[in-house]
Amino acid sequence: MENKVYHTFDAFYNSDSRILILGSMPSVKSRELGFYYMHPKNRFWQILSIVFNEYIGKSIDDKKQFLSKHKIALWDVIESCDIDGSSDSSIKNVIVNDIKSILDKTNIKYIYCTGKKAFELYNKYCFNNTKVSAVYLYSPSPANCAISLDKIVENYKVINKK
Length: 162
Fold this sequence. Notes:
By secondary structure, this protein is α/β, with parallel strands linked by helices. It has a single domain, classed as Uracil-DNA glycosylase-like domain (Uracil-DNA Glycosylase, subunit E). Helices cover 32% and strands 21% of the residues. It contains six helices and seven strands, in the order ββαααβββαβαβα. It has helices at residues 28-33, 44-51, 60-69, 99-103, 116-130, 149-156, and strands at 3-6, 19-23, 72-76, 78-83, 92-96, 110-114, 134-137. The relative contact order is 0.23.
């Protein structure tokens, strides 16, 4: 059963952010906790920890410090949509965030999308406005368990080359 869901917390960025990582829509757990990639089985923070060879603490403040240090901004393509739980495949009736607004306030030069849905929606609704090509990254979601952690880490290493 689909529900109308709204993005309930702000983009995370600083004026010196250089990299923007976009998801589709926060999971139920992330919406509950008020920050990105907070489902305990989501591999996002583990992947970044490996890619940057750096421990990232468990708290939201620890995650924000890590992101700030590496000039990484986080947001989602979708502002609101109809969605069944956290399932990207169920997303309908999308209203997108104004991605260009964050680019205008930062030094973001690189955009990465975590998962096919985020990449597809960014290209469909946002690229014409931003003129910044996005790079597709594998989804770190626990629903994407078919792709090994090693393979996802290799895919994400492009972030640390910028």
